[in-house]
Amino acid sequence: MDTLKAQIQRLLKEADKFNYENFSTKSQYGFPERYSPEWLSWSNRVFVILDSSFKDNSSPIKLINYCKQIQVFGYYEDKFLQLKSFLVNALKSSISILEDDLYHEIKYDEVIQPDALELVKMIISRFHLVARQLKIRHSNRVALEINDEYDTQDLLHALLKLFFKDIRPEVAVPNFAEKNSRLDFFIVDAGIGIEVKKTRESMDAKELGKQLIDDIARYKMLPNLKTLVFFVYDPDEWINNPVGLENDLCQKNDTLNIEVFVVPKIY
User: Fold this and answer.
1) Domain tally for the chain?
2) Measured between alpha carbons, how far is 42 from 18 in angstroms, rounded to an integer?
3) Do 23 and 92 have their domain in common?
4) What range defines the domain where residue 58 resides?
């Protein structure tokens, strides 16, 4: 409980730095247009930590559900203040519950800490939103573009650091014949490995699938690896059937779980 309480107290402290001027970019008319990366990261952490720790009928969850209904884009400061107030009150309410859970609002039967794999899934699912946001710069500054696989790895690494302390990049796989057999990221405490792919015109779904199958054969030899996550970044939508690719390769067994995420998806 103390660890969770410390996380929530840290989020409360971080809330003080946000105001109407810095929580979003503004349109030419002065209205909020897009969330800033800092606000997006902070509010996502609030949602993930509270949702994973408190029951659906608890006061913190009711408050963050209200937040999801507040429309701030196109409105003045009062809407932002309302949104921030609900989030801050949700955090304060959660601390009170941790100190005295009178109405049994904590998920005692579940892990209090946010599940590591769920955090990785959340980061990957929102990666494209962050990448798009980085293209919008103040004063016509040069956009931060994700042009290749290395750019994708760098941004993902930065986002992972929001939630995980021990992230090992470029982990060598022992006892494998091929050279340069290295896993992009290994989150040691959670036993989660992440391999990044960025699609391109010259790589069709068949070729990508073959690469992933070969990677599974390589990386399953890595000691202490429990879950292998493939993050396929497909911003130009070269993969016609992303759900099919995910379904074909995802698997769960006693030795190694395989998760595949193609982002963004077209339907």
Assistant:
1) 2
2) 10
3) yes
4) 2-114
Q: How far is residue 58 from each of residues 55, 63, 97, 227, measured CA to CA in Å?
A: 5, 9, 9, 31
Q: Please give the helix or strand (H or E) that residue 261 lies within, else none.
A: strand 257-263
Cα 91 from chain centroid (whole Å)? 20
Low pLDDT (below 50) residues in the chain = 1-2, 111-112
Q: Mind listing the pLDDT tens digit for each residue in 103-135?
A: 888 887 554 455 789 889 989 999 999 998 888
> 48: exposed, middle or buried (C-beta count within 10 Å: 0-12, 13-18, 19+)?
middle
Is the CB of residue 256 less than 8 Å from the CB of residue 215?
Answer: no
Beta bridge partners of 183: 171
Question: Do 239 and 154 reside in the same domain of the chain?
Answer: yes
- The answer to whether 229 and 120 are in contact (CB under 8 A) is yes
99 bridge partner residues: none
Q: Do the domain assignments include residue 76?
A: yes
Interior angle at CA 70, CA 120 and CA 102, nearest 5: 70
Is 201 a member of any domain? yes
- pTM, to two decimals: 0.60
Q: Are residues 90 and 207 in the same domain?
A: no
Q: At what angle do helices 77-99 and 2-15 cross, to 10 degrees?
A: 160
The pLDDT score that the predictor gives to residue 64 is 93
Which pLDDT score, from 0 to 100, does residue 111 have? 40
